[in-house]
What we know:
Number of helices: 10
Structural class: mainly alpha
Strand content: under 5%
Amino acid sequence: MAERSGLAWRFVSAGVIVPVLLACVFWLPPWSLLAFCGLACLAAGWEALGVVAPSPAVIDPVERWFGTVLAAGIGVGSVLALLYRPFVLVAAFPAVFLATLILLVLRPRAIETFSHRAAALTFAPLYVGLGLAVYPSLRYLFVHGDRWVLLIMTLTFFGDTAAYFAGRFLGRHKLHPRLSPKKTWEGSFGGILGSTLALLLARLWYLPDVQWLDVIVLAVAAGGIGQMGDLFESALKRSVGVKDSGTLLPGHGGLLDRVDALLPAGLVVFGWGLARGSLVLLGG
Length: 284
């Protein structure tokens, strides 16, 4: 009964989030997806800091808000830089380090947690901000960018769904028990097949720009990296004894739990699009 209730909440949450996201991608003004990205960075950044430093004795509320705003700044700022001043994007990394350095020197607090706080406040904003910045960037810069965003969403969803059912009914061999005891090699291969199906549907239905080479490379690379993103977040949570990254989405956990595969998968697709020349001229 509890499992059915959780599944019902998953559908309710998805029924609210997915239409809003699709509206931002396809129908609402261009700035709406950037605003959605900013809000997602705030939520996922807050959760990421809560995962990597769950004790207030390590990251206090001031530092957690600082890291959260920094994540949103990186996410929104990276998109704006790509649109108008691409070279400014190079400043994103030193900006994070310098901002963290200044904050921690001005607020040293307990010296025993200094290195933990420095690592958390540097890692979490970049992890969330750069990963989510990919989606507005794809939307604005790629030819048929809205369809590329949809492609990554379906690639990840099909892969995750296929991995779940393949692992549940065929799973015998553990994939990486130290990071995620329930995941299996059979589930992983099923996930790659699911991602391949999503790419084939995209090519035949709404994104003919996808070539057969794209289908092969992105199914394996983006699908595989997406699974690693899931394992990565699972390992982060297990290392601190946390089950979910948050409670924002009933039935799903936190937002970070839902985008853990989308963060690295989007980066792979964006990089592949650059290599294949699928982008509109920057600043054009």
